[in-house]
TrEMBL record, chains A, B:
Protein name: diphosphoinositol-polyphosphate diphosphatase
Domain Tyrosine-protein phosphatase: 29-189
GO molecular function terms attached to this record: diphosphoinositol-polyphosphate diphosphatase activity; phosphatase activity
InterPro entries: PFA-DSPs, Prot-tyrosine_phosphatase-like, Siw14-like, Tyr_Pase_AS, TYR_PHOSPHATASE_DUAL_dom
Record field: catalytic activity: 1,5-bis(diphospho)-1D-myo-inositol 2,3,4,6-tetrakisphosphate + H2O = 1-diphospho-1D-myo-inositol 2,3,4,5,6-pentakisphosphate + phosphate + 2 H(+); 3,5-bis(diphospho)-1D-myo-inositol 1,2,4,6-tetrakisphosphate + H2O = 3-diphospho-1D-myo-inositol 1,2,4,5,6-pentakisphosphate + phosphate + 2 H(+); 6-diphospho-1D-myo-inositol pentakisphosphate + H2O = 1D-myo-inositol hexakisphosphate + phosphate + H(+); 5-diphospho-1D-myo-inositol 1,2,3,4,6-pentakisphosphate + H2O = 1D-myo-inositol hexakisphosphate + phosphate + H(+)
Gene3D superfamilies in the cross-refs: Protein tyrosine phosphatase superfamily (3.90.190.10)
Keyword tags: Hydrolase, Membrane, Transmembrane, Transmembrane helix
Superkingdom of origin organism: Eukaryota
Cellular component, GO annotation: cytoplasm
Annotated transmembrane regions: 163-185
Family stated for the protein in its record: Belongs to the protein-tyrosine phosphatase family. Atypical dual-specificity phosphatase Siw14-like subfamily.
EC number: 3.6.1.52
Source organism: Apostasia shenzhenica
Length: 197, 197
């Protein structure tokens, strides 16, 4: 079984029910964005066994609604930090609020001290798709590939306003933040290769 | 830009054309399977700039056809090792040949000395989908989530024979191989966490 950190015992990360190993159930729309960055829909309790195998250090939650109490309990019991940057769920969320939330979400993703990190909204389609889309722009992906990935998760629910937002998002606003991280990790003759730029 | 290894200069990994930085073009159907494992359709020369940013150590190619000469040249120039385990491209490939190829492909994926590794066939749908599906079974994913991921990449081209193959694939045949790798890396009080089990 491939997970982020080797388990201490062969069975760690599996759900044990009545002495039997149960298969792991990833959240809906789950995928790996990069090593240490995951995306999905809102996890339900049936997914907690799977999430344990990821060894998460943090979660970025992009909805306005309070985080479900069962999810709060799961995170608290595993020492996982929750970052909530709420974006309205409709087709036309406030532009300023969305840009603010996406920028803050990107900062969390870029800082490997938060990894492994799971990004999710409710269905893992639109708000999560916007954040991942902007992240891909930071990675210099061409815009058609960014849109193709967005569409793969949004399926029949593609929102033109999301595509316009991703296309118009100015990644240069992240420049100073990236420089600050690079300085923090690389200025003092540190040869650690923790920062994945 | 997030890549596997930090570049030596800020522009490394970007395609420079006439003094201008060009956006990176991932291959069709590109995705991250796990940290260090990627999947896609057959890369074309326009994708080579992107592939460079992944710092690939190996490629698993699942077609019978000879590897295109431009791709061979790219791999050779970057010291990337090619593993070719050919499976026929039709709807009903030979069962024995497919099982043999998938088993050999899994062995390459499981050995982190081959990472970062890119798995691809022609379109990144069926043969690649089978290999990734069996890899997910090794990760103890429930079969419905394995199928959901397969369908995301196969889109309208889902092949029932592929789903039956994945469902029937006996991951226990990998048991001895996994034990051999674990023994090799962990037997001598080595505390390296290279092996991601």
């Amino acid at each position: 079984m491939v997970i982020c950190n080797p388990p201490n015992s062969p069975d760690e990360g599996m759900t044990m029910t009545a002495g039997r190993l149960e298969p792991l159930v990833p959240p809906e729309n789950f995928a790996v964005v990069e090593g240490g960055i995951y995306r999905s829909a809102l996890p339900i309790p049936a997914n907690f066994g799977f999430l344990e195998t990821l060894g998460l250090r943090s979660v970025v939650y992009l909805c306005h609604e309070p985080y479900p109490s069962s999810n709060c309990e799961f995170l608290a019991s595993r020492g996982i930090r929750l970052f909530q940057f709420g974006i309205q769920g409709g087709k036309e969320p406030s532009a300023i609020m969305r840009e603010h939330a996406i920028t803050r979400g990107l900062k969390v993703l870029l800082d490997v001290r938060n990894h492994p990190v799971l990004v999710h909204c409710k269905r893992g389609k639109h708000r999560t798709g916007c954040l991942v889309g902007c992240f891909r722009k930071l990675q210099s992906w061409c815009i058609s590939s960014v849109f193709e990935e967005y569409q793969m998760y949004a399926a029949a629910k593609v929102r033109p306003s999301d595509l316009m937002f991703i296309n118009g998002f100015d990644v240069s606003v992240m420049g100073l933040y990236i420089l600050a991280i690079m300085y923090r990790f690389h200025c003092c003759n540190s040869h650690s290769r923790r920062l994945k730029f």
